[in-house]
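Quick check before the chapter quiz. The format below is the same one you will see on the exam, so make sure you can read both the input and the output lines.
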Amino acid sequence: MRNLDRSAVLRGTALKEQLPISIVQMDVDSDASVDAATSAIRRDAGGIDVLVNNAGILRVGSIERLALDDFKATMETNYFGALRAIRAWLPHLRDQRSGCIINVSSVAGRIACSPLAPYSASKFALEALSEALAQELRPFNIRVAIVQPGIIDTAMAHQVRDVAAETTYSQVRRFGRSSKAARRSCGIRSARTRKDFSAGARR
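Here is the expected output.
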């Protein structure tokens, strides 16, 4: 976990159900953190059989109005974070001539849509990396898999829904369309305010 202060629920569940779970701190955005976590796991467990790259963040908005740092941050975690973990464990997996690397992508890694440009770009990149990696590692009996979940009912998904409505409406209004025309362009028959628009999108 990146923040061990948030591990209480997981620790409690592991203790209650007697699950052999060890929690190690790791921030995939940091070379030093990934190296330290990898060393700790090797010391305590000897190695791994499966690596699952699941860390991810989301930045939502129009390409024009999002800061460049939002694009960089998304790539840093969703793409370079997975790459760091992969490179940290490849020597071990190659030496043992077995293992599996599972990269959690998204349907957004196959079909890009607004307002998820930074997220989709990072997932497209992760899928390209995965396909090339699978070819490289086949001679060493290491499998590479991509998982492409759809939309999951989480706070992140709710953020996408609300910002998508706001982004589309505000962009159309910003470039000179009337409120009525903006609603028509966005597929909304009637809405008096942007709040109403968002509510319509949720329905």
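If your answer matched, good. The radius of gyration is 21 Å.
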